[in-house]
């Protein structure tokens, strides 16, 4: 079962941590609603974005938003209404919307099928152009997700450097406790000279506590020094080299974190850069919302770059003062003016001066450095979502026909056993409504797909007679066209204020063309 929510990442984490929905949790697939996805950081989008998760097709998860938009015109009226009147109006409005949407289900399914087909054709063309096997692209996509969702590097030196820093800090603790002990001893001697019994007793108690704390700190210091080993003690004895090592590891951690944030920033901006010319209507609102979310994260990247450059200056000063190992070179700083360009040859990708010479240089992965691979990954995911969407729509078409056939058979049986004229009258009205629904759905649900498996119920003659009666009873041509003519155009006019989210690419959003005749909006 797919569950889409604005902050579903927090919901999933809370459910996993505290056992909420424990009975249903294994059956739930969590995803973020499309319109709210760009308020989340990039690693969160990779995990919870419905365009990157299996099973969601092209679903956007904005059903509640559309319901709110549908009844929002009642706000002013219901503010001055009583409680019972308010409930009645809301019930009536929602019931009316439910009945109206029932007639549009087949049309909606048809439009979604056309949308999925168009996306599939476009994506398959891109897959052919990239000349990469789908299996290889899928491995690259998994490598990208694994790389961009792993914990970012912390600004703390690992392993032996952490142990050295801990020993140095413990030495400071011992030094402070020694000073405190000496101060208490001096005060105790002074109080004894003044024959101040109260102060003497109090200071004697403090001295006892200070000696105990000092002994405990010295024991901890010996334990930490013993855990260093030979290499650690040698580096510890060379304090200037230890300081350089701390700065170098700190700079490397800062650079790795900066690199991850810049990747996420680049991927989020890619859609805006590619679709900047196709801004119209509510699509512009979605792009503006995305751009605002990206801008809120820029100051953090700029601050991190400034901290990295300051650390590079400190490393250069250590090398210049000859307080660093031989052959040590200062790492190059990152120019803030070209920080967000993220070119493959930029300094941000190279760890010069931050790693030991024997460490091998790592190549830029294809999913990051090869634009054709990135396009292939996007196209592959579009095809995957199109396959899922087609399966979902096929199940819905089948469900519609099964539901209608059952409704018709039950209604026919009820008419045969009607025990009064009043009941028969209302049942015939219901039958006439189902005939209207059948004539509407049959235009969009292909008979050949389930002709031999699931019959509609009404015969072709009944449907033809109903359509003729409807045309004859209409007050004019406009009434007949309102029932039978161009429902797709009417649907577009009704939904012109809603967002056509289209397909969000693997690395960013891909908007539906502005001249598209079909809306990707669920009723």
UniProtKB/TrEMBL annotation:
Coiled coil: 174-227
Residue ranges of the region described as Disordered: 477-523
Pfam family, one: KDZ
Annotated InterPro entries: KDZ (IPR040521)
Keywords, sorted A to Z: Coiled coil
Sequence ranges of Acidic residues compositional bias: 489-500
Key word Coiled coil present: yes
Name assigned to this protein: Uncharacterized protein
């Amino acid at each position: 079962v797919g569950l889409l929510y604005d902050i579903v990442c927090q919901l999933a984490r809370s459910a996993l941590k505290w056992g909420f929905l424990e009975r249903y949790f294994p059956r739930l697939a969590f995803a973020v609603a499309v319109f709210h996805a760009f308020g989340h950081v990039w690693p969160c989008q990779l995990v919870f974005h419905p365009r990157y998760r299996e099973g969601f097709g092209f679903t956007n998860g904005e059903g509640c938003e559309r319901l709110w938009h549908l009844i929002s015109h009642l706000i002013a009226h219901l503010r001055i209404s009583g409680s019972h009147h308010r409930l009645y109006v809301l019930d009536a409005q929602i019931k009316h919307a439910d009945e109206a949407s029932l007639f549009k289900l087949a049309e909606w399914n048809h439009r979604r099928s056309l949308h999925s087909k168009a996306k599939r054709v476009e994506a398959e063309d891109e897959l052919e152009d990239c000349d990469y096997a789908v299996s290889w692209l899928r491995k690259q996509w998994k490598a990208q997700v694994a790389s961009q969702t792993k914990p970012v590097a912390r600004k703390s030196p690992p392993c032996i450097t952490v142990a050295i820093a801990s020993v140095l800090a413990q030495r400071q603790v011992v030094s402070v406790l020694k000073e405190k002990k000496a101060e208490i001893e001096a005060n105790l001697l002074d109080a004894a000279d003044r024959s101040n019994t109260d102060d003497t007793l109090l200071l004697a108690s403090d001295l006892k506590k200070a000696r105990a704390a000092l002994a405990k700190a010295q024991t901890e210091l010996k334990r930490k020094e013993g855990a260093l080993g030979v290499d650690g003690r040698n580096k510890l004895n060379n304090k200037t080299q230890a300081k350089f090592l701390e700065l170098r590891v700190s700079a490397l951690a800062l650079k790795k974190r900066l690199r991850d944030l810049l990747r996420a920033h680049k991927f989020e901006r890619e859609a805006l850069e590619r679709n900047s010319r196709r801004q119209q209507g509510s699509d512009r609102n979605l792009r503006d919302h995305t751009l605002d979310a990206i801008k809120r994260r820029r100051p953090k990247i700029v601050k991190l770059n400034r901290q990295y450059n300051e650390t590079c200056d400190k490393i250069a000063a250590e090398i210049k003062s000859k307080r660093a190992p031989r052959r040590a070179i200062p790492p190059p700083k990152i120019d803030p003016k070209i920080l967000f360009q993220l070119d493959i040859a930029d300094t941000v990708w190279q760890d010069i001066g931050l790693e030991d010479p024997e460490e091998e240089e790592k190549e830029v992965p294809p999913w990051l450095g090869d634009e054709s691979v990135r396009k292939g990954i996007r196209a592959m995911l579009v095809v995957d979502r199109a396959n899922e969407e087609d399966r979902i729509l096929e199940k819905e078409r089948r469900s519609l026909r099964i539901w209608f056939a059952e409704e018709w058979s039950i209604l026919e049986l009820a008419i045969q056993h009607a025990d009064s004229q009043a009941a028969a009258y209302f049942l015939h009205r219901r039958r006439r409504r189902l005939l209207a629904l059948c004539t509407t759905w049959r235009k969009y649900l292909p008979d050949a797909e389930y002709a031999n498996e699931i019959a509609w119920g009404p015969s072709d003659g009944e449907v033809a007679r109903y359509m003729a009666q409807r045309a004859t009873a209409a007050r004019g041509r406009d009434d007949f066209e309102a029932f039978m003519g161009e429902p797709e155009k009417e649907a577009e006019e009704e939904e012109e204020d809603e967002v056509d989210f289209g397909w969000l690419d693997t690395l960013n959003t891909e908007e539906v063309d502005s001249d598209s005749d079909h809306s990707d909006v669920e009723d």
